[in-house]
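Retro notes, item 3 of 5
We never archived the inputs for the sodium ion complex last cycle. Fixing that now. Sequence and ligand:
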Amino acid sequence: MTLILIILLPLLGACLPLATEKFGRTLCAFSAALGPAISLALLLWHLPTVLAGGSFIYDHSWLPLLGLDLSLRLDGLGMMFGLMITGIGLLVILYTRYYLSPRDSLGKLYALLQIFMMAMLGIVISNNILLLIVFWELTSLASFLLISYWSVQSDARKGARMALTITGAGGLALLGGALLLGKIVGSFNLTEILASGELIKNHELYPVALILILIGAFTKSAQFPFHFWLPHAMHAPTPVSAYLHSATMVKAGVFLLARMYPALAGTDLWFYIVSSVGLFTLVFGAYTALFKHDLKGLLAFSTISHLGLITLLFGLNSQLAAIAALFHIINHATFKASLFMTAGIIDHETGTRDMRRLNGMWQFMPLTTTLAMVAASAMAGVPLLNGFLSKEMFFSETLNLNTSGYLTWLVPLLATFAGIFAVAYSYRFVYEVFFGGKPVDLPKYPPHEPPHYMIAPMAILVVLCVVIGMFPNLTIAPFLHAAGLAVLGSDMPDYKIAIWHGFNLPLLMSCIALAGGLLLYYQRKGLFAFYERQYRRDEKVMFEARIQRSEQLAQQLTEKFENGSLQSYLVWFFGMVIVLGASQLLFIDKLTGSVAAAPVDAVSVVMAIVMMVGAVGTVLIHHNRFAALLLLSVVGLVVSLIFIRFSAPDLALTQISVEVVTVVLMMLALYFLPQVTPNESGPLKVSRDIVIAGSIGTGIGLLCWAILTRPYETIADYYLANAVSGGGGTNVVNVILVDFRGFDTLGEITVLTVAAMGIYAMLRKLRLPPPPNPDGTEHVWAKEPSPPVLMVLARLLLPLALMVSTYIFLRGHNLPGGGFIAGLITSVALILQYVASGNDWVQERINWRYRNVAAIGVLIAAATGAGSWLFGYPFLTTAFTYVTWPIVGKFELATALIFDIGVYVTVVGSTLVILSYLGRLSHFNRHAHIKSLSSGDN
Amino acid sequence: MSHLVIAPILLPLITGLILLLMPERHRMRTHLLSMFSVFALMVISVLLIIKAGRGEFVVYALGNWAPPFGIVLVLDRLSAIMMLLSSTLAFFSLLYTTDEKAPQVSPHFHSLAHFLLTGVNGAFLTGDLFNLFVFFEILLLSSYALLMQAGSARRAKAGLHYVILNVTGSAIFLIAIATLYGLTGTLNMADLAVKVAAADADTAPFIGIAALLLFIVFGLKAAIFPLYFWLPAAYSSAHGPVAALFAIMTKVGVYAIIRVYTLIFGNDAGELSNILLPWLWPLAFITLILGAIGALGARELRVQISWLVIVSVGTLLTGVALNSETALSATIFYLLHSTWICAALFLLTDLIIRQRGDAEDRITSAPEMRQSLLLGGLFFVAAISVIGMPPLSGFVGKALILQAATGPQTPWIWAGILLGGLAVLTALSRSGSTIFWRMENHVVTAPAADIWSVIAILGLILFSFGLMIFGNQVIAYTNALAEQVLHPQPYIQAVLGHIPVKGN
Amino acid sequence: MEALISIVIAVLTGCGIYLALRGRTFPVILGLTLLSYAVNLFIFVMGRLQSGVPAVISSRDQYTDPIPQALVLTAIVIGFAMTAFMLVLALRARSELGNDHIDGKNTREETPR
Amino acid sequence: MGWRKLLPHPALSVFMWGLWLLLINDISAGHVVLGAFLGWFIPWITYPFWPESTPVRKPLVVMRFLSRVVVDILVANYVLMLRIIGPTRNLHPAFLTLPLDVQNDFTITILASTICLAPGTVSANLSNDRKSLLIHVLNVSDVEMAITDIKRRYEAPLKEIFECS
Amino acid sequence: MTDNSIVEIITAIFLLIGGLFALLGSIGLARLPDFYMRLHGPAKATTLGVGGVLIGSMIFFSTHSEGFSLHELLITLFLFITAPISAHMVAKAALHIHLPYVKRTRGKPW
Amino acid sequence: MLVTAIPIAMFMVSLAIVLNLWRLVIGPSLPDRIIALDTMYINTIALLIIYGVYQGSALYFEAALLIAVMGFAGTVALSKYILRGDIIE
Ligand code: NA
Ligand code: NA
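Structure as it came back at the time:
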């Protein structure tokens, strides 16, 4: 449980600074330090056991089905990192208190730092690789926010995005690798994974898993070729750099190498990849660092180089090298953090970090100068400082490669080479900032020593460098031993950290490095010129350009498909239909089935021809819209004849009614549209469309033929058998509509109502003048609204039509008819009134809110359905009974009839909403038009 | 007998109708009724989940007609969880519109939203293929109407494309249904499963045509390549709350694909077993990739989020294509996550648009937002989740799907999902950092976000959190769900063995 | 007869799809209407072709299959609702886009107001 | 006036009653009752659309008029049909302007309809002042004769039925 | 000759006459030279033709099922009410757009 | 008798419909087309009635009635469109 506390305390601490910020900076800093301090204390509390080789484990089931558990383990490696994270973290908190200008929110920075700290602690004491990844990604996110702390600066934003993109990508790769490991081992528990090294390394997926995990580690640790985000992360406030980019974030990558060492290391693949990446990064980073004029830029590349060194050590597949790597992790953290703090102090005091302007600072800040010199010396590998010790181990390991070939001499050579550069840039750091003449127009002048409390954290770290360097066995050895145990297990080699190993090759290399470095620095002129000529590319610009290029490409590619052309979308759609349909149809051996076709009669052929002429005619004539509408009506008419011909009178009734209402609707709409379709399609497009239309038409025709010539078993008999006894009606189609499948009908009238509402909503406030003729003239319309002859007759027809409607409605259950058709007849009769006498006239006579009518209709139908609940039956269960009344005689009462009334009411309501609102459209516009005319007169 | 199963259809239907009858000026009353109804719906879905969680099928025979003759509603784990998803989504989307000053909500917004819910829930519940068509139409028409609530050139164009494509899709849907009926003589999905499995070599290829045509229809709704082209324009032109509601619609397509291609054309379908699979996974893969590319290239936040919807569809259908219990379970988990988060992002974008003046949600520098910290924070969290970074649910969903990948296409799927995630990360980090950080020096005078709007967004994000925290229970449920869905025999027996209430 | 009806459906489908691929709203709606006729006929004939035997229970013992008929009825109504909606949408689009092109492209014969 | 509201068009009601029985093809008691109800109900509910009453007088004249129209339709149609399929060059079409004596919209409507039904004539337009009717005649030799013929055969009886006061 | 066959013959005659008139009306529509002349065919002949067919049907069903079948009268009535109005409306439309008429037509439309 | 008369009558009406279609396709004017369509509706009624006699079934009567009603409504609306453009004003 305390393990969780170790992780969570910083998180809890994240809230405190935000709250205490307004009570002063010191309190804010204290509140920020509280969490990490307790975490540190808890770690120290566990320290004795861990140093003795023990470890603490906490297991809590979280998502066992995913394999993600809240499983924690505090062992030597975790302890080492944990102390580093909390310890340096506390120093950074203290440092930040003085670093940050009052303009910036201290609380926010603390909060983000603490979130980061929590994530980092989580990484190092996770005992579940998925949990590790959770924390891993959290560090990426937190660092994103930290780097972009000054988000108004474009560079900060870009740097943050770059870091996030690169480390995020690495995180994804790591996730992949981890899942593969889980697949191989059967568990995500790190203890189990680490114990299954042999299994993993012999698995066929090992190379993939290894590479994915290494990508994760390398991106985080800024190894080549993923290194470039780190220099640009320097736009973060310097405490952030001191923390993230020396001690923690970038160390997560090498931590992962250490953590996974038992499981993944030891193979040739590991050796070649890890060591060559490390080697290259080491050399490249050291080389580049020398030429950076920005203090933090220099430190960033130096960090890259040192991380390369650590990586190289892990890559060497030797236990001693691993120990050296662990050692260097600590050493690098101490001197690099203090150097970043130095950079921060310089920046803070002078307002610049440009080494070309900074000179002779020792006069202004001697204490800082002293401390920086020590730290830089540690970085350079000067004896009696901690950097020297691990570097010596490194040099000696490069000499003990257990491979043959050119690597045996190349590695030590390049290591020395990198050592030379390290000395050179360390020297440059010290010399060009603190000595070497007078400062050149500093933004702040004169600089002076920063507050003591700002120097204190740096001083503590420098003291550590010295103490470790001088008394390694008293200070660091136990920690290193414990960490080494965790990494290497029982294979712990015999090793001795000593300042003096006698005159040997590593010492020689160190000496060469020191001497060569100084020499190099004083001969730097030509080298700088060479560098300026050779190496002028800016990764940020390139990265941004690459991202922008990929965004542009993405956009172009997207617009290829997403071109805003409905025709193109439809072509894709129909293309899918053709491809998928053909994939089946083309491989059919027997198209025609076993059922014989019925004979053809002359009238049917004639009517079929009429219909096809109508359809083809609609296509040919479609530029003349009104005429096309008329031809379309022919098709609709023949469709209803086909329904009649093949025994479906209900369908014919519905079809013919819907047809007319549709045509009326189309005319209402056509009034506001151009009367003529321009000829826009080129011959290519036309032939393409003909091919598509022809293929699908043929396909559907063939499918239809194939089905019609095949037998099928149908459930129809059941309906025929139960329509009268169970549904109370002899018209089976109607009984299906109101009873067997009444739910469909309820849905269907809902659709109608929704359509009406949608149309109403769309027409509200729509202003739309009818378009002019193609030649630009206005249409000339008749002056008189309606011929009186029509008005008179329409009124006469209304009762007649209502009678017919009643008739159709009442007989529907037993004979063709029903609520839907009756509703349409009523609507058409009313529409006729609108057509004949105009909107206002009808509105004076029926001022229903048609929308409500439609809604009430659906409610009636639904309520009828729900009525069956009262009797313990499911929704829409119908009941009917035969009643005998005097005079009237026996007749049927059926709930289905009430349902059908609902249908009727809905149809009337929604049809009238649609038609009357569409009709009113011109009304609004005409009034608007008149108004504009009259205002124009005045 | 319990009528609870039909409540998710009837409750929104009747609410929608009553809302239509209420006078337009009673805005708050309408809103309250609407909210109350959705809340009740949420409670009902929870009850149904509990019911379905026991592993039994609840078969509700409408009109008391025995299947396959009447229409049945079938509640199983899959339909139950989908309804929970739709009701929560609706609840927060409607909650978002509480703001009195919000300009966009037209008088019929609430009733149309309820009709949409009717359609969605009906589609989830029905056990009848034609009835599925009817509910599809209800939800489509409601969505058309919701999309076209107010005018704008962009919306009109998007709406036109959306409607015409879907009307064409409906025609294909009908042809597929008719073909199935013409060859098997039934519409009940369980019965179809039996009949299709028994189809002989003579008729099977024609049934196969219907099967593939159905995929085109569902694929159009789900927005799979090459049928998704309508989506970015339509979703991005809709108002925030409408777009948030729309987040469920692609999932209806995904649901239909899962249902039909496991139940009817699944492992036991004889000649037609898994007829879809050879097509599904490459298309899903392309969808995923093109969606990620689209997100990368987007110039507006709304458009970008629309592409994220497509990415999620690609991911989901990849999961479906794997045709295994673990994969399906992961898919459902991811489905819950992606729907909630995409909805939250749509709502959030709406708030952003309101505070950015003329720049709206274009990914360019603009005046500072009034509440940039609040909105930025919400965006950051939602973005993390949608990218699939820990510690939010997207990570779990993605990890589950990756874990479930097996077979020869595994490298593709891994590459697709991981690289897609990277593209989305790049895209969102660009849009987020530009919108929230690249600010000009003055602030647009816009009203502060309504508290309910913020709560709605937070709520959706919290659901995503919940998925992570209660992940194990959720995964246990989705595992059981996947087991149930991939072994449809009990479903078929439950439906075809259903006995109507006596006495009719 | 089966061949004849298949040809009719094929022609209707083809014409409908061709028109649906045009560039202006009105012809597209005409095309979709044609397509819906084709589809309705297709559903209808799935109950096979029966002459003179409506699904009304009487003394006859032969009937046509009522289910496709019921489906067509629903399809007709839904098709009507969709057509109406599309028409109004076309008006809305002309109002917003200034012309009746399905992609809102400005063309010669009409300039946006 | 109470009964006028309750039973606005008694003749129409009776007509509708008959119509119902005609439609339903069944004179069972139930349908007689239902028909009576509908015959009352439908005119009552559509009353706002047709508020003016059109009292029909002189049933004898009505009968005479109707039979004349029917005979005209039957006999003259035959002649006309022969002309349609015969050589079209022999047809002598004309537009006639018929000055109207009848004033009531309803009467004009009936007249226009009758002219349309009558062979060889179509009433094509009604002037805005409702004083004259434009008629297209398919084949006419004497224009004046035709006009007086129409006035005598159709307009006069209609005026007598509906408008003589 | 049985009653039945007499009825059949009468029915047949009415159907044939009706069909013939319908055809004649449509021939008129198809071949007459100008719109106003073409209008005459459908306005009357076709209506009459349908009337004939309806009478045939009335006779047939009155004798082939129990009771009279008079409901065809309703269609006839309806057609006779509406056909003239249709013709009038279309003619009015034609006049409005100034459709040309053959030269020999006497009188002028207004 | 009836057996031979019905096909002949039906064929005559079908021919009439073909002639209507001919007029409808060639136009030349819109009123021509409207009247052609109207006539086609009426001929369809005839066709239906004859078919009803042929089948001996009264079930086609309603369809015929409805075609009459709808045909009229359609023709009126179409004519009004030419006259006024705006059919509901
Ligand atoms: Na019916
Ligand atoms: Na109008």
